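Sample 3 of the quickstart, ligand phosphoenolpyruvate:
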Amino acid sequence: MVIVIRNGAGEEQIAALEGWLVEHGVKPSVTVGDKQTIIGCIGDVSQIDEGRLMAMSDVVASVKRIQDPYKLVNRQFHPQDTVVEIPVAGGAPLKIGGGHFQVIAGPCSVESEEQVLAIARAVKSAGATLLRGGAFKPRTSPYAFQGLRREGLRILSAAKAETGLPVVSEIMDPRDLPMFDDVDVLQIGARNMQNYELLKEVGTNSRKPILLKRSFSATIKELLMSAEYVLAGGNPNVILCERGIRTYETTTRNTIDLTVVPLLHGKSHLPIIVDPSHATGVASLVHPLSMAAAVIGADGLIVEVHNDPPHALCDGAQSQTPEMFAAMMDGIRNVRPFACR
Ligand code: PEP
Ligand code: MN
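Result:
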């Protein structure tokens, strides 16, 4: 339920209304916008009598019930874009969403300190603002490289210390959260998008930005419901990510669903970024699809870059070389002024 506050209502009247809502068992969330102030009601609103609310006509302008099952992530509940902030040591935080665009780049997996440092330096000089690298890898085969785990996180910290780039890394197990202390953005991968215990853990016990990747078989509603878990836990810092869905087409690794970018901007206030590397599985397709994502209003990109793709331990075929990445960044800078948002 969303209560639109009458223009001109005073702070005391709004506070009294909030108190009334709490007495009736719901948690109010006030959003003060340029044009209007609204109160989103969290919890069981079935007992709230709309007639009694409308009778408070000095403070209540209108009341609407949100029919969608996702509430906190719903744009009706929170009309302004959420701008997620990522702290940067000794500098202003990086912002993503609400017109702020960031590019996250780096290897699929952390393989060695030399590898990560070489790639981190290269992507930084090309204009990336965050470094990605998997230390815990969700692999289809148990015999494939599983990641350097704790040592991988140490290497990412070393790369951050040298380059100043905040790091993004995938967490797969709720018990690992303390190990991710020096990771700036916690990635929840496609395979774990519906790992509800993991979503609850990062929602309740962390306030770090969560990069929530859409599962390859998830509907938009399912993606938003997973994001709702994180916000319901108390962590408002969620960045959604489209990374391709599974269709009948097998020429590409997945089918990129760019429709979700403008669609989700309508349905939700959360930022949405695109991962054209996993969406296509083909390095040469990453540049054109990144440009497309930027133009349709994505809030950022996450792309895989490797200094020796043929020998990458994971996802070499979709990894750009540093030179390809630099060319792509030039393209992005050229098209960003034409972004529809
Ligand atoms: C990754 O980012 O390396 C990854 C495993 O992504 P996804 O969960 O989208 O497959
Ligand atoms: Mn990968």
